[in-house]
Amino acid sequence: MSALRYLISFMTAAFGLAVIFLAACIPAYFTSVDRHVVARAGAGSKSLEAAAELALDSACVSTALILADCAPNAQHLKKRANSLLQTHKTWAQFGGDAPFFEAFMPKDFKGLFIPVYKCMAGRKDRASLIDSLSESKSAMVGRILSLRKLNTVLLPPSYSSAGAPYEASLATLALLAQSGDLSDSFLYYLSVKISNISDAREQESFEKCMVGILALSSHLDYSALSSIFKLFKSPDDVFEFSQAYLAPESDYFRKCVISAAILSGDIKSVSNYLKGADIKTWGDLAFTLDYGQAAVEFLLSNNKPVYENSPAAEFIDKYCSPMKNLFAPLCVNHLNIALAVKILLSIIGGAVFAEGILGFFRMNRGAYLPARCAASGIIISALFFAAVEPSAFDVKIENAAATQLSIVFDRVKSNIIGEKDMFSIDTDSATLAAIALFFVLQSLVYVVCLVRLNAIKRQRVSATLKLKLLENEDNLFDLGLYIGLAGTVASLILLTFGVINASLMAGYTSTLFGILFTALVKIVHLRKYRRKLLVESANEQHS
Question: What does the domain layout of the chain look like in residue ranges?
Answer without folding.
Answer: 2-33+323-542, 88-282
